[in-house]
Structure prediction request, 169 residues.
Amino acid sequence: MRISEVLTLPLNLFIKRGLPSADPDFIKNRMLHIQGKGGKERLVPLTPSAVRAVKAYLEVREHFFSFVRDKNPFLFASEAKEGHLTRQRVGQLLKELALKAGLSPERLSPHVLRHAFASHLLHHGADLLSLQQLLGHSDISTTQIYTHVLYEHLSNLLQHHHPVAKSPQ
Prediction:
């Protein structure tokens, strides 16, 4: 999901679905039906680890701010005029976490996480059409920018593991 899609998730989407739930049958094959960029609708898988994370967050959500108890409609509520966390604030939080982890804050952003997600999927065998659907791209050419990661990986595999590539010249 794009960061703006995550931040505008309505709280009732999870309450209606029965979260928090420890029921493994509930977790299997769950999908979020979201309206993304340009009003385009798509399904986003809700993995077991995501369910656990939302469950843990919901257990402490109202302790962050007193206004959350006043029925703020967003999963990621905030006192910002939008009523939810902003992209900019998430970027700031990521930079703070990067510093705490000893990483360069310039190298971490919501978009970098999205790019890493796409790159890891391709690296582990995902096809471009599936990746296109998961990223919510309307055109496959937008998704193809991630193929350089796949080509780099294949080139590296060839150079390090193919007998002819390793033979002395």
Observations:
- Residues 11 and 75 are 4 Å apart (CA to CA).
- DSSP finds ten helices and two strands in the chain.
- The radius of gyration is 20 Å.
